[in-house]
Amino acid sequence: MSVSASSITVDDKRVELPVKSGSIGPSVVDIGKLHGQTGIFTFDPGFTSTASCESAITYIDGDKGVLLYRGYPIEQLAEQGDFLETAYLMLFGELPTPAQKADFDYRVTRHTMVHDQMNRFFQGFRRDAHPMAIMVACVGALSAFYHDSTDISDENQRMIASLRMIAKMPTLAAMAYKYSIGQPFVYPKNDLDYTSNFLRMCFAVPCEEFQVNPTYARALDKIFILHADHEQNASTSTVRLAGSSGANPFACIAAGIACLWGPAHGGANEAALKMLMEIGTPDNVAKYVAKAKDKNDPFRLMGFGHRVYKNYDPRARIMQKTTHEVLKELNIKDDLLEVAVQLEKIALEDEYFIEKKLYPNIDFYSGITLKALGFPTSMFTVLFALARTTGWIAQWAEMIQDPAQKIGRPRQLYVGPEQRDYVNIAQRG
Ligand code: CMC
Questions:
Q1: What positions does UniProt annotate as the active site of this protein (predicted)?
Q2: pLDDT tens string 355-387
Q3: Which CATH class, in words, describes the domain spanning 5-51?
Q4: Which residues line ligand 1 (CB under 6 A)?
């Protein structure tokens, strides 16, 4: 499709709307001057037809099932690279040379410890606090601990804040987990790679040695790569909106974590696993598929459907393979996997799901893998947040450097009462 020129006529006044083209993907109609010239706004709840910014980080073709980070297909990055390489790519736009990679790994590794007073901050939480609640609070609180990297006009401080968050998210996530199970915090160990270090901080105890299983570490590293960015999704848009006011980066990422928590977004992996547990056995699958199709039943198949992917979620394909690899390594015959396979099969053959282009998304399989790796469901969204932090930071940094950047300020279609006069309380009734 090509769009070369566009215009709109409002009250007989014709306004030319410039069309902008990206490197790939749909063009956009620039409506930035529409209100100034005509007095009307556009209306697009849920932003289904609205591009909110220019970005050179992630590209998705939802119809073809394509996901590229800085031009590189997700399949190649997940199969051949590692997570910190992806983080470098996100931040700097190119894959690192060996020397750049070694330097980046070193710098991230040297920031993994959190300020020791953060330990006391944790003690304020109820023992059974959801780890996402802890993450929202602790990441926001980093701005109270690292004043020397909150000046967003200073490029050097922006980079230090970025490295700090990439480095400290695994430490905070592991602490949130340890706190919830009443075990002592495990400090980072700098001779381990990023993901092995995280697994150790989660599953080691101080009284014995801990060996990280390389298959687990590789599987989790892949999960992190798959979750690293997804262009202007709800949480990323939240980070950009928060950042557009000039808020410090720690506060912006905390806002992103809050948004990610919802079951329609990052919380879907937790919800998908709970759903598989509720379905229980493959012979119940048909009943639940019928519930999902029933307009009068609010039940939805969690882990199915996506706002952008209307063919297949490419991340789901990689995730499905990783799930099988992990279960094989562990020699686990998981009933939930059988339920998932059966559910996927029935749903993909069903007219309702075909017609609405509803396919399994990444969350459909990631929950099974994370459970097999030993994580409780309450940690699933935390792991998503850990990985997505790289994307959020890259998007935030891109926004700060964009000369067209303004505070985000959507307008509305007002449907409330017209102006009316205040009535004293004694005369109301
Ligand atoms: N099960 C049953 N029906 C569904 C589902 C589902 N999972 N998803 C969408 N539909 C139906 C929906 O009822 C609607 O039907 P109709 O047109 O008859 O009213 C139609 O499909 C379109 O749905 P929508 O809600 O308008 O689509 P959306 O683009 O606004 O929502 C979604 C996308 C992901 C929120 C939605 O598909 C959903 O709630 N899925 C389950 C939650 C989930 O797995 N979320 C993870 C998304 S991937 C991870 C991430 O990026 O965060």
A1: 306, 363
A2: 998 888 888 888 888 988 999 999 999 999 999
A3: mainly beta
A4: 230, 233, 264-266, 268, 292, 300-307, 356, 358, 361-363
